[in-house]
């Protein structure tokens, strides 16, 4: 097997491993995968409106409300009025989410950083470029597959 094929297979195996790990974290937190993605968005943005969360997760207004109700009940987020526009709600992750993330993802993040110790700065830059370009490819292909799904729904409709 040539190196390019081996790399492609390792990338796919890595994606499967990350997916399985995230599924286990969702079970640990007693949430579903969409809820876990919501917590990830909130941990990276600090705060969001329900509309922003719906757009980021591809959810309807009703689905966002149900998700926020579940996560608030578990103590993972808070909702408060937007100080600049009382008609809007601001959603924030609670410290419970940060603590759970440290337990779940902390060890893998630490070991991952240690893995990088064996690489030069130039090699890390190469890995960063590959990873960034791979993510961008997936972002582009996500838009394509979402459009195909919409066409399929419209045809069935």
| Morphology call | globular
Question: Which percent bin holds the helix content?
Answer: over 70%
**Which residues form runs of ≥5 with pLDDT under 50?**
none
CATH homologous superfamily classification of the domain at 3-94: Winged helix-like DNA-binding domain superfamily/Winged helix DNA-binding domain
| CATH architectural designation of the domain at 3-94 | Orthogonal Bundle
> H/E series, N to C?
HHHHEEHH
Instruction: Tell how many strands the DSSP assignment holds.
Output: 2
Number of helices: 6
Mean pLDDT: 94
CATH class membership of the domain at 3-94:
Mainly Alpha
Q: How would a textbook summarize the main sheet?
A: 2 strands, antiparallel
Distance between the termini: 46 Å
Q: If you compute it from the alpha carbons, what radius of gyration comes out, rounded to the nearest whole angstrom?
A: 19 Å
Q: Decide which structural class fits the backbone.
A: mainly alpha
Reported by name, the CATH topology of the domain at 3-94 is Arc Repressor Mutant, subunit A
Q: How large a portion of the residues is in β-strands, by DSSP E?
A: 5-15%
In spatial order, strands of the major sheet run 1-2
Model description:
This protein is mostly helical. The protein has a domain at 3-94: Winged helix-like DNA-binding domain superfamily/Winged helix DNA-binding domain (Arc Repressor Mutant, subunit A, Orthogonal Bundle), CATH 1.10.10.10. The chain is built from six helices and two strands. A two-stranded antiparallel ribbon has the order 1-2. A hairpin with a 2-residue loop joins β1 and β2. The longest helix is centred in the last third of the chain and has 36 residues, at 121-156. The N and C termini lie far apart (46 Å). The mean pLDDT is 94.
